Amino acid sequence: MGKEKGEEVLKLWYNSGLRFHCTSCGKCCTGAPGFVWLEDADIKKLSCHLSLSEEEFLHKYTRKVGEKITLLEDRKTYDCIFLQGKQCSVYEARPQQCRAFPFWLSNLKKKTDWLQAKQMCEGIDHADAPLIPLSEILKKLHLDE
Ligand code: SF4
Ligand code: SF4
Questions:
Q1: Ligand 2 atom closest to the CA of 98, numbered from 1
Q2: Core vs surface per residue 40-64: b (16+ CB within 10 A) or e
């Protein structure tokens, strides 16, 4: 890591790590309009997991927004199309955006962003939550903006 990059990391407000433990409450997969953006690797993995061609997968489970592709959701409940009860039905093949949550750039810019995410995600600062070190957070960080 170069000197400038190192200094940038030193300035991060979550330098000492963050506490998070997913309780599988499922709230991040429902409840409000949102987008689960899919990269090529996500489409390949999900198609393969569902034993579909990529074309079939895209037709059945996604829609385009501009040039980007997102998963479908229920128009009334905003459940992700893959949410069953409180569980993700494609958990092993879930998209990178889902794997990274709540470590999204939009949740980490300022401490207040993280505290706002905590209002929805009970895993943030959960009593059983281990301290996730900065190195792990940086690996997970999803550049969602
Ligand atoms: S809202 Fe948080 S605790 Fe609940 S399933 Fe999503 S990541 Fe896990
Ligand atoms: S793909 Fe799975 S983890 Fe991602 S939003 Fe849908 S139900 Fe949740």
A1: 4
A2: eebbebbbeebeeeeeebbeebbee
